[in-house]
Amino acid sequence: xxxxxxxxxxxxxxxGSISMTTFVLDPANALSNVVLVLTLPLIxxxxxxxxxxxxxxxxxxxxxxxxxxxxxxxxSPPPREKYTAADVLEQSPxxxxxxxxxxxxxVGLYFATGGxxxxxxxxxxxxxxxxxxxxxxxxxxSKTTRTTRWANHVAIPFMLYAxxxxxxxxxxxxEAVGSALAPGAVGSFLxxxxxxxxxxxxxxxxxxxxxxxxxxxxxxxxxxxxxxxxGLSNLWLGFxxxxxxxxxxxxxxxxxxxxxxxxxxxxxxxxxxxxxF
Length: 277
Fold this sequence. Notes:
The protein is an all-alpha fold. The protein has helices at about 20-25, 25-45, 70, 85-90, 95-110, 120-135, 135-145, 150-170, 175-180, 185-195, 200-215, 220-245, 250-275.
């Protein structure tokens, strides 16, 4: 939680701050990403029913009438015969490609001249990547508009968690809670996993629990462990949401089987790496 200088932690001065490069390239973080991307699909395939008799057929209209790509297609450009002058520009792949080339060149020049990786530069790179993937400027705009419409609903509870941090700090409870938890790599992971069941956002989990988890441990290790612990808690929150929504064909026993195996496997991978590094 650094200030504008990127060097001072404005919530906990003694903790210092972490550069984005240090966090992204930390061995525990980088290796866990590689291991999980390569192996989690295999775990899911192994868990999936392979016999036709074990599969559940839902009554009613199918969820996907066409291919998944067609069903999830979020943007359809207007017919060419109805194009206005503005449509020609807004639907032009050439404009997108020119913007991507200029943007990527800016990123390359920035890092070539010694620029540090910051959150804003990471977001700018992702924006260029999104524009490249969606091809048309208006397709990219449509997607980002739809995916960010709930941003205010995320910001409001984040302020609530900041208030929780302030209350715990002013009451002097962080030191007592930290001593009781004996934070470390394992403590950070388990604390975030448990707290994440109450706070469905890894960033907000770190706001509330960060001062406890830092303790005497390596700050990057605590952050990596807490991030994955909070992420796994979201898997179990999904179980609660699916149960409340009463989705047709939802089998809570099947979900628990998936969630339990994935939680156990990811926990072993993450805890092994943070303990080693």
